[in-house]
Specification:
globular, disordered C terminus, 43% helix, 18% strand, four-stranded antiparallel β-sheet, Alpha-Beta Plaits, 2 domains, Arc Repressor Mutant, subunit A, 168 residues, 4 strands
């Protein structure tokens, strides 16, 4: 993947899109002080370069729970017996392909992975543990923390328009 040069308008576009990707092109252009055609061309360039991976809707867990019931959110620490590159990649690929795993981080020091998982209820979580952890002979230790309240959730990466001027 070829890296692209970003200017302050690109960084402003990325910042605005991280906050609200549902903005119309006209509204986005107005917020970054550029014309709509220029805005559209720049956003397409950012997508094509892979800086914008995808656009998603973030659901309100309290309102969703009223419709489908309260689920479980767990932060799970995983320690493997073997940490060679193949063992790490194998585990990472397996959990990344499971819909219940929302986030997966390889970390150091401490456990090898930290996962954020969602399950409908405890029996669903137990099925997940059998599917992903107890069936894997390389998983040495699993430590789960169950969320009782989400205090903050975000996905914004810090971007500083001043960083472009400083690096130029």
């Amino acid at each position: 993947m070829k890296l692209i040069d970003l200017d302050s308008i690109d960084l402003l576009l990325l910042s605005q899109l991280q906050r609200d990707a549902s903005l119309s092109n006209q509204d986005l252009a107005a917020q970054v002080h550029t014309s709509p055609p220029t805005c559209l061309r720049r956003v397409k360039r950012l997508h094509d370069a892979g800086l914008i991976e995808r656009q998603i809707a973030i659901l309100n867990p309290q309102l969703v729970a009223q419709v489908v019931g309260h689920g479980l959110t767990a932060i799970v620490e995983i320690t493997l017996d073997r940490q060679d590159a193949d063992a790490l990649l194998s585990f990472e690929n397996r959990v990344a392909n499971d819909d219940a795993v929302q986030q997966c981080y390889q970390v150091s020091p401490g456990p090898d992975f930290v996962l954020v998982v969602h399950a409908l209820h405890m029996p669903d979580y137990q099925a997940l543990t059998k599917r992903l952890f107890t069936s894997d002979a390389n998983v040495r230790n699993v430590k789960a923390f169950f969320s009782i309240k989400r205090s903050k959730f975000g996905a914004e990466l810090p971007l500083s328009p001043g960083a472009v001027a400083a690096s130029a």
